Structure formats: structure tokens, C-alpha cells
Amino acid sequence: MPPKWRELADEIAAKINSGEYAPGDRLPKIEDLAREGKGSKTTVHAAYKALEADGLVASSRGHGTVVRARVSLSTGAEREERSKLTGSSWRAGERSDSHMAGVVAAPDDVAEALGVTAGQPVLRRTRVYRDEHTNAVISHSTSWIPAVFAEELPELVMGKRLSGGTSIDMITRHTGRPVSRRFSTMWARTTTPADAGSLEIPEDTRAAVIVLTVRIVDTSGMTIEYGVDLGGPGCRWAKEESAG
Fold first, then answer.
1. From CA 37, how far away is CA 29, in angstroms rounded?
2. Half-sphere exposure of 177 (CA within 13 A, CB side)
3. pTM of the model
4. What is the pLDDT of residues 106-134, one digit of tens each?
5. What angle, 0 to 180 degrees and rounded to 10, lies between the N-to-C axes of helices 4-18 and 41-53?
6. What is the Cα–Cα distance from 185 to 214, expressed in whole angstroms?
7. At 236, phi and psi to the nearest 5?
8. What 3-state class would DSSP assign to 30?
9. Structural domains in the chain?
10. 192-204: per-residue pLDDT in tens?
11. Alpha-carbon distance 89 to 38, whole Å?
């Protein structure tokens, strides 16, 4: 039998999924649910923390616990296309921060994607995309780039948001070789303690998250970037296509 807090969390989650609690609605105060017999304050608090870890609600001081809108993730290709059209990779209601960059040793999976030897120097750029209204993490995004571009394009090594487009825009302008192919993957997995810092969730959180990757190849056949996006709990990927 599940613990009381899990039962309460599931009960509230069902109301969120049915639309009884809509995005933007504030959940009852912890004290009110405790008075209604839903459990002790500790039980209700644990239920709310579980809902937050699942990406269904966001809590903040002064605003209480509010139902989150279901946020859609963007693939690397979608951000690149948006940047070309609008000058920004952000979608409406989104912002990015915590930009970091540096040359590191290539992990095995990154080395395979970039076609280099594991342990070779590569450029790693990371940033966090957030919901600008709730400040919740939408995704933690990492771009892995051949080290040669760290030398030829110093701006890529600066830990700040790029001006004038994405890293792909900068690299293709520099080389004169446009993108010819993109290889994308998507899968789901359960969060690990190692994800806590990236997604700003408790270390003991166990929630399903989506991982998006894209390997970008230019017309010479060179992989110029390998992107990995780890979605926050509760985030999804959706795409609209026109009928032929």
C-alpha cells in the first residue's frame, strides 16, 4: 500500500489531469488540506513536493503552489530554425540562464558522436531554459563542439549567451559550409541523483524525463555539434505538421 502522501499526490494529480485544477490555479493551502483531514501538514507538504518533482506544480514564496502549464521541449533543430526566423532560440514564455563554457575531456558517448577519441579535448557549452513565469526548469541543454572551434571562435568559450545566433550559426558562417544533415534521437528515462543539480530537483526525485539529442553535420561531412537536452519533469515534446 502506498504511503499517505503518495495517495494524496495521486489524488491531486488526477484533478490536474482532468482539468479540475487548470494551469495557473493555486492549490489549497497545506493547512487547509490538513484541517480537511487529508493528512498532517507533513503529509500534505510531502504530497506537494512530489507533485512539484513530477513537474505538475510550481511552488514559490508569496504565491503558494500553482499548477504548471504543460511545457513543450524544443529540439536543437527547432531552436536553430527559430533563431534564423526571429533572432532568438527562445520560444514564447521562455528564457535561458546559467550559461557556461569550457574545454573538457570528451566522454565516451560524446567522442563517438563527434568522431574523436575518448578523452580528447572538446568544447562544452551548457545553459538552462526556464519558464519565465514560474522560473521552473524546462530543460538543461548541452552543446558539444569540436575543440578547433574553441580556438577559431573565442566567443564560443565565453560563459554567456551568444549574440548573433546560435553556435551552429556562428560555425557555419565561419567555415562557409552549411548544415547538410541532422541525426536526432529521443527517449525517456528516470531521473538519477546526478540530475538534481541540472534540473534543480531533490536528489531523491524519481521522475520520468525526456532526453533529446541531435548530431549536426555540415556539407564536408564533419560533425560540428552534438546537442543533448534533458527535459525537466512533466515536460513533453510536441510537433505540429501540415497535412500533405
1. 13
2. 12
3. 0.74
4. 999 999 999 999 999 999 999 998 887 77
5. 50
6. 7
7. -135, 170
8. helix
9. 4-67 (1.10.10.10), 72-237 (3.40.1410.10)
10. 888 888 888 877 7
11. 44
